Amino acid sequence: MSNKSMNDPLHPRPSRLASLAPQDEGEGARRSNTLEGEGQLRLSSPHGEVRNGAKRNEASNHEGAWLRFKRAKTLRKNFAYHGAGLAIALFFLAPLAVTLLASFRHGTEARQPAIPPWPTNGFSLDSYRSLDSFGAGVWQHTVNSLAVSLATVVLTVAVSLLAGYGFSRYRFPLKNVLFVLVIATLMIPFQSILTPLFIILAKLGLNNSLVGLTLVYVTLQLPFSVFMMRNAFDAVPKEIEEAARIDGARDLMLLVRVLLPLVLPGVATVAIFAFLNAWNEFLAALVLLSSNEKYTLPVLMMAVRAGRLGAINWGAVQAGVAVMTIPCLIVFLALQRYYMRGLMAGAVK
Amino acid sequence: MGVVTITPLLKTVAQTSPPPPDPSGHPPRKGEGARETHPEHQMTDPGQNQSTRKRRSATQWRGLLYIAPAMALVIVFFVVPVLFTGWMSLHNWPLMGTQRWIGFNNYIRMANDARFMSALRFTAYYTIIVTIAIFAIAFPLAIFVEKQRRFVGTYRTIIFLPVVIGLATASLLWVWLANVDSGFIGPALKALGLVERSPNLLASFDSAFLTIIIMVVWKIAGFTMIILLTGLQAIPVELTEAARIDGAGRWQRFRHLTLPLMRRTIALALIISVTGSILAFDQFYIMTSGGPQNRMISVVYYIFNQSFVSFNLGYGAALSIALLVILMLISIAQLRLLKIGEERP
Amino acid sequence: MIKRLLATSAVATFCFMSGASAAETIEMWVRTGVGDSFKKVVEAYNASHENKVTATEVPFSELVQKYATAIAGGQAPDALSMDLIYTPAFAAAGQLEDLTDWAKQLPYFNSLSPSHVKLGTYQDRIYGLPLSVETSVFAWNKGLYKQAGLDPEKAPASWQEIEVNAEKIRKLGDDTYGFYFSGGACGGCMIFTFTPLVWGSGADILSADGKTATLDTPQMRKAVDAYRSMVKKDLVPPSAATDNGTNFLSFNNGKIGQQSLGAFAIGTLVTEYPDIDFGVTLIPGIDGGTSSFAGGDNFVITKGTKKLDAVKEFLEYVYSLEGQKVMAKYGSLPTRGDIAEEALKGLDPRMQVGLKAIAVARTPYTLQFNDLINSANGPWATFTNAAIYGDDVDGAFANAQGEMQAIIDSGQ
What we know:
The structure holds three protein chains of three kinds.
Chain A: H1 2-6, H2 15-20, H3 25-33, H4 35-44, H5 49-59, H6 63-102, H7 126-132, H8 138-169, H9 175-184, H10 194-203, H11 210-234, H12 238-246, H13 251-259, H14 264-280, H15 283-288, H16 297-306, H17 314-348
Helix pairs in contact in A: 6-17, 7-17, 8-11, 8-14, 11-14, 14-17, 16-17
Chain B: H1 2-15, H2 34-37, H3 39-43, H4 50-88, E1 91-92, E2 100-101, H5 105-111, H6 114-144, H7 152-164, H8 167-177, H9 185-191, H10 205-233, H11 237-245, H12 250-261, H13 263-278, H14 282-288, H15 299-308, H16 313-338
Helix pairs in contact in B: 1-13, 4-16, 6-10, 6-13, 7-10, 8-10, 8-14, 10-13, 11-12, 13-16, 15-16
Chain C: H1 2-19, E1 25-31, H2 37-48, E2 52-58, H3 63-72, E3 79-83, H4 87-92, H5 100-104, H6 114-119, E4 121-122, E5 125-126, E6 128-141, H7 142-147, H8 159-170, E7 177-180, H9 187-193, H10 195-199, H11 218-232, E8 256-262, H12 263-272, E9 278-281, E10 283-284, E11 290-301, H13 308-319, H14 321-329, H15 340-344, H16 351-360, E12 361-362, H17 369-374, H18 379-389, H19 393-410
Parallel strand pairs in C: 1-2, 1-3, 7-8, 11-12
Antiparallel strand pairs in C: 3-11, 4-5, 6-8, 6-9, 6-11, 10-11
């Protein structure tokens, strides 16, 4: 799906944007290996080499020496650049890596400082076992979290697709007011409407239910998603619709058959955002759910954080962080080109 | 609590109501309205074509049908709760027992509430410091990953990784890292011989605050970086080249060319950071429980405490309404700042 | 779309309902972190009765707000194992079932833990009955005592002695410490382990009628000084300064010489950490005397539950010798004084110290326990951290005294 829509002439991917979207490693590496990549590198080197070079040239007319010097300088610069890059990568990766490694230490080591962070007494799943002993077991909570997150994704996409289309293509009374209303959802800290939310869910018979929680998550997701989808539809030329109408496509059929493929990148962005936010949310889950077997993972994590028998089990915390983090990382790494692009599309405009 | 703190961050992108995308990928300059950049919208302008108009009026209600599910959710799970919150704010509303109408007494109490004032002060302080910290890291990072060169995609991805994990999870992770006995940072400092014994980073305000700032920067900088990167890349290469040929130094180019051209992007990133920081809660709740000695109680934390610890739901509701007003003012300011209030077709 | 969802969930709910059998299923909530005794007694009950109890564990720090929110939404569980200190507030709010008549006809009513019944009583009506009892006691690690050249069988009788012992134990090694307490603004931990110092010596933090804060007493000053001194001498692990209760039982790592802890912990230590050899005694007062905090949970029933009889049947089972034995085996002290000896028979003798503590134990009676004491951002919790770790002791006293009084006054 992705390739087709991305190369779609109707949905131009500007060349500059193309360079924004994170390429997968292979592609990036290939590109910078080409001559063009080299040229780009030299041209865009930020240190004003042209000027420096000119000066140097005056000083010494020895072309070969100068070229060697320049090559050495580029090399040195490259070295400095990637040295800095490694340091930066270390800072951003280390906390995650340390936790992941530490989660495989023996249960007896969980109390010791994480120096070194990797297992020294052999690989062990003790931490995951003790995580599993909290609540109704980590599988149950993972399944709950997955169910809520995926349902949130599906509903958010469906609802925002319709709403984005409506806001983009139709004029109707109070349109702007309603749009602002949707966007306004993010202006109130939702902690402060938790009690009314709880009461309303209870009235609807949706308290202590994953369905109720999902509906709340979808609502929290709407401002971003509706906005995103409206922009996506705005970017689709109307001629396409007109043509499809002439061919007899109407309404939902038109939306699903003709327009959906054109806004798929937007849909993907909305879906990823919905997944990450639903997966990570804890306070609403804590307040709105009230039985062990329905708790989502973040609530389990709060129980782990609270400790048991007067002691916090850091091993279980590490394991929990790993279980919480890995699905997010997988979703992100698998779909990052959409995620980043969606983010940037939002920012550029 | 991803939804609370991260989502507003991400969502604020949406809030800034941008004009439709420009196929060139460059952000429209100041003054360029949506209409100018999008010829196809003119085609459907009402009054331009009689038959179009007729069909439009027939189908305009269909638009409402499309947005109905979204509106239903927003009304049931947002508008009603907010109205309810407003209603509660006019009551003495204990969590249990009977509520009593007290008019605007909660708002009067708020004006004299020293703890609320100190929560406001702390939130402002945190917002300023964390925003400066995020920019101080994210801007150089954006410049660092701007040029297409070997591994740059990998760097971007790695820097962005922490953004996708939840703030609550990140807080939990860092509370372990910062633990004095079983953690990583303190023991690592000790192992490197930088300190004599592992420090309890969360015990004093300064070191705890610093730890939280570093955690937030770690978590958020990638996000800000990507937004700034967008702005950087939208600056036409010819302009910088021309400036360079004219003999402008690196700093001069940055100061007089890059910064002004990135005004909108910077404003956007700024606003996202500010909004997210004003709503900060998770990191203080999970990492320091508002301590040491209550010096890290943010506004949302205070609302949470009033509502769910002291059970003064009425007062908590009044505080929420106050925060809503503050955020709304900031949003209006941001719309002004970004000059993006233009009507859409 | 919503309608369809509503319909779906309605169908789902219906299926669940029709799946239930004729026997009643009681929904109960219990806070985490109080040991396994309740879980085990529920298991034993379910195995032998037609009615069933489903117990949901709720993180202890969120239990009260969750329960209160659930009541507001009309979705509370039938019964709750509630930290006894909250019973007055919930009873006062009219959320709990009046158990007076039923309770008084129980043949063993007069031997139920008096502190619990007192806290369960509001305006002469009884709303809460003891479910689990724990008292705070002072524990020392006999192994470390021996290594430090101290007599492992001699319980310290004063805080001077405790400090001297702590210094000797601290000398044993870099990571061995003489004393531990949860000093990171854990109001619950400190009321449990620290107020006995002043209670034992005749002072209190609240007046008898609960209407005046009496924090600033010479006894409290001395108690604070004792803790400050140990912190200053590095006898307490640095982690204590930020422990908000999650590591309350640090004693179990075997590197802590002495610590005040609860009877639940005795059970935990015995079953989970059998290699730690420890002794327990009553917590000495700062100026002589001994005291303890009577803690644990009260059993409360949500007002208007339709399963009242089933709930009562369960509670009667808990009070039976069989139930009491199960509870005791997993760390709760017997709630019935008349069969306490029998219930503890064959169990660790150190549990007897916990039982003895009931006689000297106190529990503050206030409707605002959460605001005053337990909240991590309340005056008591803040005070304990500021006074023991801060630079301005006088300021800490003044702030806390003022804020406590303000909270009490606002509740009148």
